[in-house]
Amino acid sequence: MPHGKMVRCFVLALVAVFATVSWAQSPIGAVVQTWTHDPATNLVTLKIVNRSHKDITAFNIAIKETYADGHVSEHELLEELIGKILRAKELQGTPQGESFREQFGDGGFHPGEVRDELLPVAPGLTNVEAVIDVVTYTDSTADSANNDGLQRIVDERKATVASKTMARDIIRAALADPNDADPSTTASKKMRDQAKAWNARSHTTIDDLEPTALESMADEVTVSSRRHNKLNDKRDALKQFADREDVQISMLAVHTSVKKTGGPQ
User: Fold this and answer.
1) How do residues 74-126 score in pLDDT, each as one tens digit?
2) Does residue 45 sit in the same domain as residue 73?
3) What confidence score (pLDDT) does residue 26 get?
4) Tens digit of pLDDT for each residue in 45-88?
5) At 55, which CATH number?
6) Same domain, 186 and 237
7) How far apart are CA 137 and CA 147, in angstroms?
8) What is the spatial distance between Cα 140 and Cα 78, in angstroms, rounded to a whole number?
9) Quick check: 39 and 121 in contact, CB under 8 A?
10) Of 192, 191, 217, 195, which Cα lies nearest the Cα of 208?
11) How confident is the model at residue 25, as a pLDDT?
């Protein structure tokens, strides 16, 4: 066997052993099995497995990148799946739902499933250390070795619920005014004004609002309104939007209270 192939096989064997040891020692329900680096695209592919017996709704990865010049970069990567899970349920039974499922399945990360996570890196990468330190599940429990990371997941979900609640209430108020000839414009402007006001203030946490989500919903209301010419059709479309937000708020609110059951106590 050529010397180069022998070295490569030996390295791969070491990687496999290390992954198995890490798996056995990890108290978290998902692990990074292996990683590969493509220097042509400067992308690292992390191969992640759900080794728990539950569907995963989010996970956080602590990452340490080492480069040939000695530079070390440490950061975290959060993969939040709740949005895809809710979208799959919302589209169930529709033609759009079939297309969505072909691309994302039902949005969840199921027991035993292996998935790839792409990580952009800088040129000159020599090593990556990637450890999953937070996992949340569909039953609103979590494994966590990073309580700050877990809290960020919870805060972002609370902020999304708060933003959807605000958008729904603004829309309901606009629809309740019989003299408003264009409730969609009124609602979308109010949402953008609220996002702008939030951005103008200082905040220690984001759990009271997510301005980007509010602006996105304002854009969606505007686009939906432009598809209709008659006022009654515009009002019906706006009401359907508010009704959809009601459903999503109820579904997402369940996941804003997470109980830690695994990981270091």
Assistant:
1) 999 999 999 898 888 888 888 888 888 888 888 899 999 999 999 999 999 99
2) yes
3) 56
4) 999 999 999 999 999 999 999 999 999 999 999 999 998 988 88
5) 2.60.40
6) yes
7) 15
8) 17
9) no
10) 195
11) 45
- How far CA 86 is from CA of 55, 155, 164, 178, 223, in Å, comes to 14, 18, 13, 33, 21
**Structural domain contains residue 218:** yes
Residue 195 is encoded by which pair of tokens? 């996002």
Residues 51 and 120 in one domain: yes
Q: Say if 234 falls within a structural domain.
A: yes
Buried-exposed string 161-172: b where 16+ CB fall within 10 A, e elsewhere: bbbbebbbebbb
Q: Which has more pLDDT, 208 or 51?
A: 51
Residues 253, 59, 254: CA angle, nearest 5 degrees: 10
What domain range is 188 assigned to? 153-256
Chosen domain end from 139, 172, 206: 139
For residue 264, being part of any structural domain is answered with no
Residue 213 identity: A
